[in-house]
Amino acid sequence: MRGPRLVVNLVLLVVAVLFVAPLLWLLTASFDAHGGLSAQVPGKFTLSNFGHILTWDIGGRPLLNGLFISGGAAIIVIVVAVLAAYPLSRYQLRFRRPFLYTILFTTGLPVTAIMVPVYGLFVRLGLVDSLWGTTVFLAATALPMAIWMCKNFMDGIPVSLEEAAWVDGASSMQALRSIVLPLMAPGVAVVGIFTFIQAWGNFFVPFVLLLDPAKTPASVNIYSFFGQNGLVAYGQLAAYSILYTAPVLGLYLVVSRWLGGGFSMAGAVKA
């Protein structure tokens, strides 16, 4: 048994190194005045890389735009997914299972395959270069999986609890708001964070739909550190990457603390 265990530990060690190496490069290059592609002790320690990105045009406004788009998409998805999942979970609909599988199938469609007709639609509706339009589209792309996840999280809540509320005179919406939502709070948090991260890291959609540099989110603004002729400001890129990951880590830590570590993906893709 010692041999297989040793092999497993070595494989896990290699995987851990592969994950840690990029993070180590971020830490070393961000404080290096002459940061390059290799992770090494900074030859000249400096904070100028952070000073360069901590400005309104480079760091402030793109992060604010990204928070607006990602946060708005997460809120829209949570509201719509919960309302759509409730009848799918509680009522015996005739075409429920085909509908759910259709929803799941749409999650496999790549965004790049539909961007040309979407861009044409946005042109006709006057939504090109609109933060709200981009937010709604990103929410729509995340809705299929969110509805599937919310439905299966909701399946784990006994209907008898709602029936007791109905006996007391509560409506379906009141029971949903007062009983179901508090009990599935970890599931709602998973859906919200899933949507936020998906929108936060999306480069292609904002790059196509937003033309004004003042409206681009951080995921697109990071492209500005790649100069012409292959020149890259590695130190500033590393510092910006650390700043870019901070909101996602902060959101996860805050929600995890609020829920007491109650995250679970159990049942998220159950039929």
Note down, in words, how this protein is organized:
By secondary structure, the chain is mainly α. It has 2 domains: 46 residues, no CATH class; 201 residues, MetI-like fold. 70% of the residues lie in helices and 0% in strands. It is built from 12 helices and no strands. Helix 3 crosses helix 9 and helix 7 crosses helix 8. The longest helix has 35 residues. It is globular. The two termini are 37 Å apart.
Which architecture of the largest domain would the CATH scheme give at its second level? Orthogonal Bundle
Strand share of the residues?
under 5%
Number of DSSP strands?
0
Q: Termini separation (Å)? A: 37 Å
- Average pLDDT, to the nearest integer? 83
Number of helices: 12
**What is the chain-wise order of helices and strands?**
HHHHHHHHHHHH
* Main sheet overview: none
The tally of domains stands at: 2
Radius of gyration: 23 Å
- The shape, in one word, is globular
Q: Looking at the chains present, what oligomeric state does this protein adopt?
A: single chain
Short structural summary:
This protein is mainly alpha-helical. It has 12 helices and no strands. The longest helix is centred in the first third of the chain and has 35 residues, at 56-90.
Helices and strands in order, then pairings?
Layout: H1 2-30, H2 48-53, H3 56-90, H4 96-106, H5 115-125, H6 131-155, H7 159-167, H8 172-183, H9 185-200, H10 204-209, H11 218-221, H12 234-259
